Amino acid sequence: MALDVRLLRWTAALAVLSVAWLAAQWPGVLIHPVVGWLPVPACTALAVIVLLRTSQAAPDRRSGRFWRHLALVLTLLSAAVVSSVYDSLVRFGAPSQRSSTPTMVLYLGAIVVLLWALLRLPVGRRTSHDLITLGLDLTIVLAAAALVAWFAAARASVPVSAVTGSSWTLFGILLMVFASLVSLAKVALAGAGALDRRALWTMGGTVVVGAVAGSAAPLLESRPYLNDCHISIPVCCVGLAMAAVRQRRAFAEGLAAVRRSQSRPFSLIPYVAIVVADAFVLVGVGDDPRDTRILVGGSVLLTLLVTARQLISLYENSHLLARVDASMLELRRHERRFRSLVQHSSDVLAIADEHYVLTYGSPSLLRFTGRQSVLGTSLWELVHPDDAERLRQASSGLAAPGSTTTLQLRLLQPDGTWRWFEVVTTNLLHDPSVRGVVANARDITESRRYQDQLSYQASHDGLTGLANRSLFAARTVEAVASSRGGSLSGGLALALIDLDDFKAINDRLGHAVGDALLVEVAERLRTTVRPGDVVARLGGDEFAVLLPESTREASTDIADAFIDALAAPVRAAGYELLIQASIGVARHTPDCDASDLLRRADMAMYAAKESGKSRWVEYGPELDAHAVEHAQLAADLSQALDRDELTVHYQPIVALPGGEIRGVEALVRWRHPTRGQVSPAVFIPVAERTGLIVQIGAWVLRKSCDQAAAWISALDEAAPWKMSVNASARQLLEPSFVDTVAAILHDCALPPARLTIEITETAVFGGGRALDTVRSLHALGVKIALDDFGTGHSSLGLLRTCPVDVLKVDKSFVDGVTGTVEQEAIVTSISEIAQALRLEAVAEGVETRAQANRLLELGYQLAQGFHFYRPMPPEAVTAAIAAEAGVTHRGAGKATPASAF
Predict the structure, then answer these.
(1) Which long-range contacts (CB under 8 A, 24 or more apart) does 255-264 make?
(2) What is the DSSP secondary structure assignment for residue 460, as one 8-state letter?
(3) pLDDT digit string (tens) for 874-886?
(4) Which CATH superfamily is domain 635-900 in?
(5) Could you tell me which residues are beta bridge partners of residue 410?
(6) Are strands 783-789 and 755-760 parallel, antiparallel or unpaired?
(7) Model-level pTM?
(8) 460-619, what's its fold?
(9) Beta strands 862-864 and 840-844, pairing class
(10) N or C terminus of the chain: which is more exposed, having fewer CB within 10 Å?
(11) Considering only CA atoms, which of 742, 786, 735, 737 is closest in space to residue 764?
């Protein structure tokens, strides 16, 4: 771009030099005329470079072609100048202003190329009517230009021809004027496509100036050493170079075809052309009738063209008025439709000023508020006080024009109730047709109520109405954060409550009774806590209470209150039930988060269960150590079988009164490599919780059946008749347990009648899969013994549903058999029940001879306990059996009865 400006400056400097030389030579010849011709071709060469550079920068093919045509025009003019130099200084004698035919051909060729370039300028897409109008306008301008050109030619032909020696000179000048008028009319009437308007105006004006300068030849008649080309050609070069630089800048800025000014809806150029032509007619009418007829005829032609132009305009105006009428009719139809929609719409539409004072309210707003008019009413009067701050925050977000915000708030009804609305507010204060804040509101009360209901259901227990696990977890996280931040000066505690033996009640009496019991427990917990405490049902029969602002004394009192509240009998679905609960309490410390707090409460709750239930335990660091101990014990127990650390001992079941061995009960023992002998009371619960009891139980069963088969093979009739093996509730729930028992009996070749599976009452109390398993075992031929009989919820009722062959009386009843009559009543009743149902009865835990004698008196024939034998390895059992038979078993000494120890 900078190079183009420098070239333009050099072109202007050469043009000034050429005009200065002509002025200096006007009085007389100072320097040879050839010097005055040198700047002219130099000007054309520089201008050609500028034009070609502009054509290369054009963004489209048409624009570049136009500026290349202009470069060709200047190239032809440069050649014409060289030819003029030859004509002036050589051909017609020196000096001379005459032009040869080749010179005039070159000038005329340049003018023709200029006209061709102008006519090829793109015209925007127009309708047929626009094209007709454009054609008439151009015809008027060209006709006026032709009339003026004819008048000028008629008056100036003689002097110009005399000076130049040819009438072609005058024709070329007129053609240049005609070309300039064409360019101006084309740009003014039809536009220039992607070309810059001002560049084209500059070019057209330059051509006019050059044509006027070229018509000054008669003034130089007395000075043949001067030529009008010294002025006209440099002026054209400077103008075209200026137009090219202007166009190049427009291309660089991307402003081509964009800077078109918004012109009037009509053009004045045709009318100006008529005025000019009429002026020449008035001046040119004289004595020559031929000239007069030509001028008058041209004037009549122009009048007819203008008349046609006006008729077309009138037709267009009539057509436009018809379209306007149709548009107005459609607009009124849309207005009526909009008014009907607004009047009958349930949505509320309101417009308020910048102070939120209503300036318009739709009929639905009037119906909702029960007012005759809402004009001048402040929106704050209709909004719920609790939502005012929300509205104020939304209004602060409407500062920018056209900004929109959406919010939900409550609006007042005439009866004093509130309804929820979703309000979309838009700032149209800048819009002259509105000048306000537009609010469109939709009643969402029912959907909001439904959403609130769904939200409540998602965060609350459906049965009890208490908070559910997810809501309780969220509240716990919030409370822990507040405790860490120091907001809870009284501290934070969490209580976890688990109902004892709830499953038995649920299975025995049905889920309806269980649900009613849970509802009553939830209500007791809710009435026991303080305001601000959070009560939740985590699932099943597990409840939790979050106790913010709770000191150690307060949490202790609340835990005691829970125990007392749950101790009273519960009336549920017509049943009066006694319910107990184990409660774990944990206090928040800086080193625990929400999950740790719940985990600690859970550990404390299990500690309460292990301590005897119906009590509460507060978490302490020792519980973590106990949990770690249990976890390590579980890990070691999972490898005990592979390490061959488990063994099976057998405790004989004897006949009364002599103590002869009739059967044995298999009891698993664990000798830990570092802990030594681990009590079954310690590792069996661990196996139950981890599920290892299934694997261990199957191993014990196979080991025991193998031993029973070995005794039968070795001792024949002296072998123990029954092998009793304990089965846990977890084993009875295994779908493959019956198949496992059948497979072991088959592998060991042990008759099913020689095997007794001992179960507890609680294992089958709920019925379901466990009871089905027991029935399948009984159908297989396996005997079923009910262990710890009399300690369960409904032992007698169980005898009607569960197939039982043996009743094993719990040691707690046997201990009182030598006491009062009341103490031995249960043992007596069980013996009578067994006799009536033709069941075997085995008294467990016999530790004294007096107990054995009294049990015999009460009708018991089988007993088991330390008075007779302790659990012992199979070799000792074999030895004891051999001693009874008076036979010394090979490889085993005589066993000593436990009562002798």
Answers:
(1) 255/196, 256/59, 256/63, 256/194, 256/195, 256/196, 257/192, 257/193, 257/194, 257/195, 257/196, 259/196, 259/197, 259/198, 260/191, 260/197, 261/197
(2) B
(3) 999 999 998 887 7
(4) EAL domain (3.20.20.450)
(5) 420
(6) parallel
(7) 0.48
(8) Alpha-Beta Plaits (3.30.70)
(9) parallel
(10) C
(11) 786
